[in-house]
Amino acid sequence: MTTTSITATWERLVRFHRTSTDTMDAHLQAEFGRTLDDYDILHQVRSHDGPIRMGDLAQRLLIANSSCHRIVGRLVDDGFLQRLTGSGDRREVHIQLTAAGKRQWRRMAVVHTRDIEDILGGPLPVSERAQLDEILQQLLEEEVD
Fold first, then answer.
1. Burial track 10-24 (b if 16+ CB lie within 10 A, e otherwise)
2. Are 81 and 101 in contact (CB under 8 A)?
3. What CATH topology corresponds to 20-144?
4. Helix axes 3-32, 99-116, angle to 10 degrees
5. What is the model's pLDDT at position 92?
6. Cβ–Cβ under 8 Å, residues 73 and 57
7. Could you tell me where the DSSP H helices lie in the chain?
């Protein structure tokens, strides 16, 4: 593969990511008045075993701590998350879902899952989705090394 075609592949990947996430964000905003970032935070907190430290949450989301704090603050104000201070260090803040946050995540997950199925499931046959998954896994493994 030439440098030009590698660059073109990268640009298509970035464009696909952008248009897909823009679509998902628009659907969540239309349905719930919430962003994809809101959903991602609710999802990561829900998938963690117990309360999660703010720094770990930002790292899992691949976003800056300041962005994470801003979005979490909004979700706390809206009653979907609550902050807990660490027992040993009061500066250490953990986040957990409230009952309202669990309900909101479940409702948003239906729309988000439908979007993912429409975006990847519609145009790609199962065999090609499996190939894509393998390729992405390879790329992620290379990134870690």
1. eeeeeeeeeebeeeb
2. yes
3. Arc Repressor Mutant, subunit A (1.10.10)
4. 130
5. 80
6. no
7. 3-32, 36-47, 54-61, 65-77, 99-116, 126-144
Percent residues over pLDDT 90 in the chain: 59
Whether 87 contacts 48, CB under 8 Å: no
Length of the chain: 145
Say if CB 108 and CB 34 are below 8 A apart.
Answer: yes
* 35-78 residue pLDDT tens: 999 999 999 999 998 899 988 999 999 888 888 999 999 999 99
Rounded CA separation 127/106 (Å): 29
The amino acid that residue 39 corresponds to is Y
Side chain identity, residue 144: V
